[in-house]
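Supplementary Note 3. Input sequence used for the single-chain structure prediction.
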Amino acid sequence: MSSIATSVQTAGRAVGSKTTPGPILLMGPPGAGKGTQAKELIKLWGVPQISTGDLLRANVAQGTPLGRIAKEIIGRGELVPDTLVNDMVAVRLLKPDTINGYILDGFPRTIGQADWLDDRLAAQPEALPVVAVSIKVNYNQLLRRITGRRNCPVCHTIYNVYVNPPKVEGFCDIEGAALIQRDDDTEVVFKERMRAYEALTAPVMEHYRALGRFAEVDGDRPIDKIAAEIVVAVERLRR
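The predicted structure, written as C-alpha cells, is reproduced below.
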C-alpha cells in the first residue's frame, strides 16, 4: 500500500472501511492536482474515474451510435451538446463498477448537466446524490506549477524549475536530453484556462454549495494530506 493510501486510511479510517463514497465531483483549477488525487481515491475505494473527455474519445474510436453522432458534430467544428454528453454518461453509469460510486472528471461542467445528473440520481431510490469537493490552490502557486513544468522528450520525466529542478539546468537527469516546455504551459495560456475554468465552474460550485453538498480542501499541502482531507470531507458530506 502506498504511503498516501496509508495516510488517507489513517485520517479517514471510517470512510475507507464503512462509508460508501457514491458519486464524487472532484473540482479544481488547472494544476490543482485533481488527477493525482483521483488516482488515490480510486485505489482507496475501488471506484472508477469517469472522464467525459475519455468517454467521448472512446465512443468515437469504437464507432458507437453516440460516437458516430459526436464525430459528425466535431467534424463540423461544433461543440458536442450537453444532451449527447449526458447520454454517454448515462450508458457508462450502467456498468457494474459504478455501484459503490465513481470520481467525476469534467462532468457536470454546466448547470444543465448538473441538473440532469441530479434528477437522474434522484429517480433511483438506491443512488446517492453527487457531492462536490474543490481543491483550492493559491493563484501564484498554480502559476508556478504550470509555467515551471519541463518535460523530457525521451523518458517523459517531469521536472519543475521552481520546486523540482534538474541537476543541470535545462537537461534531463536520466537521459541528458534537452527539456521542453509544452505550448499550453505558458502564462498566457494558463490565464485563459483559468478564466474559462472560473466562468464554467463557478455556477456548478454554487449549485452544490446551495444544496449543502460542497466542500473545499486546501491544495497547498503535501499530496497525502490533501487526499486525507478529501476523504474526511466526503465522509462529512455523506452523513
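Residues 3-48+95-138+200-237 form a domain with the Rossmann fold fold (CATH 3.40.50.300). Confidence is low (pLDDT under 50) at residues 1-17.
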